[in-house]
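Re-run requested by the PI after the first attempt was lost when the workstation crashed. Everything re-entered from the original request form. Ligand of interest: magnesium ion.
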Amino acid sequence: MKPTITIIAPVYNEEPVLHELYKRISGIMDQQEDSWELLLVDDGSRDRSAAIIAELHEKDSRVKGISFSRNFGFQEAVTAGMDFSSGDAVVLTDADLQDPPEVIPEMIAKWREGFDVVYGVRTEREGETWFKLVTAKMFYRIIHRITSVNIPLDTGDFRLMDRRVVDAIGQMHERNRFLRGMVPWVGFKQTGVYFKRDPRFAGEAKYSSFRRMFRFAMNAITSFSYVPLQLATYLGFAIAALTALAILVVIFLRLFSVHALTGQATTLVAVLFLGGVQLISLGIIGEYLGRIYDEVKGRPLYLVQEKWGLDETAVSDEKPESA
Ligand code: UDP
Ligand code: MG
């Protein structure tokens, strides 16, 4: 039977949290009237996460699972979850219990009121580094300014989506995905509920490295904005205008003053400055070009290795190996 609510959690090396996740979610959801399923997407974990998903599925068939052939990334894991979900509404949540399951009934209530997207707005974040908080705040402000989609401030991926939003996103096959932008882009009726983000239940965060956060920000910006490309144009005009002025000044000094400008330092500085600007512009074009290249190749977004409780006809009936 088709469940009303699908809860999706991407899982990457989350061995210590999975049992607790199941306990908290089932505890909350069993008090609700709606039927539910918990869909765990194992994103190529190297620990026992996949085996635990299989165990949980054995114990409670409402727990379903997919495992990837390797680590594809958070956005891909969530996308797979949405592709395989069957609920009338879908809730995305992190596996580490940073998004408290207690908020889900509030989201469902808003959905019943007629909203298609109910996102969780963080009022407070516990257990995050100072650096992450500041950069996250800056990131959301910048993205708000330079993109035309209305990405709500201080929201993560914790959200409920109606089936028609999930289907709409299913039609967006883009690579280097940025779901936090794709969901507002879809439109429909969207609203938020406030919650306090908890520290991770156990295990380690995977997104704390600066490189990963930078990639994430670049994907967000390039997916939704041309502003960086236009920057070169604006800067070009500004420098050209300044240079035109400078030419007049130089001519004036040459004709009417004995203090004609001499020296290589000025020339060198000007050349190096322009060289720098040109390299940056080329780099920005490169960022977009690389992403176009990714699109053109048209590779699948993820590859499934194993499934539990989903579309039984498609996979062999082999029992997953228990470690
Ligand atoms: N995650 C994933 N694939 C990855 C990295 C992370 O599926 O390559 C999952 C992870 O298991 C967790 C969620 O994405 O459920 C958020 O990850 P994490 O807690 O490390 O990030 P943070 O909360 O620090 O943003
Ligand atoms: Mg986390």
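Saved to the shared folder this time. Confidence is low (pLDDT under 50) at residues 313-323.
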